[in-house]
Amino acid sequence: MKAEELRALETIDLRAKVAALEEDLFKVRLQQATAQLSDTSKILKARRLFARAKTILHERERADAAAGK
Questions:
Q1: Nearest Cα to 15, choosing from 52, 57, 60?
Q2: SS (HEC) of 5-67
Q3: Domain containing residue 54
């Protein structure tokens, strides 16, 4: 999922997406720890997507806080 696709989501949907991505990252790390993960690049992809979504969410929260002052 690209950053522009994440930015198109509503804030509530973005929060749900962040929670889902965090769970996916946990599952991928668990698979790696139990030697069930065949493609180790999934960890990097999951981590980057999670970070991208969190960054966009924080940008929105800061913008809302600045507008509310």
A1: 57
A2: HHHCCCHHHHHHHHHHHHHHHHHHHHHHHCCCCCCCHHHHHHHHHHHHHHHHHHHHHHHHHHH
A3: 3-68
Residue 61: per-residue pLDDT: 94
* Tokens encoding 7: 């930015």
What CATH number did the domain enclosing 54 receive?
Answer: 1.10.287
Q: Number of structural domains, the chain?
A: 1
pLDDT digits (tens, 9 = 90+) for 15-67: 999 999 999 999 999 999 999 999 999 999 999 999 999 999 999 999 999 99
> How many Cβ atoms from other residues are within 10 Å of residue 50's Cβ?
19
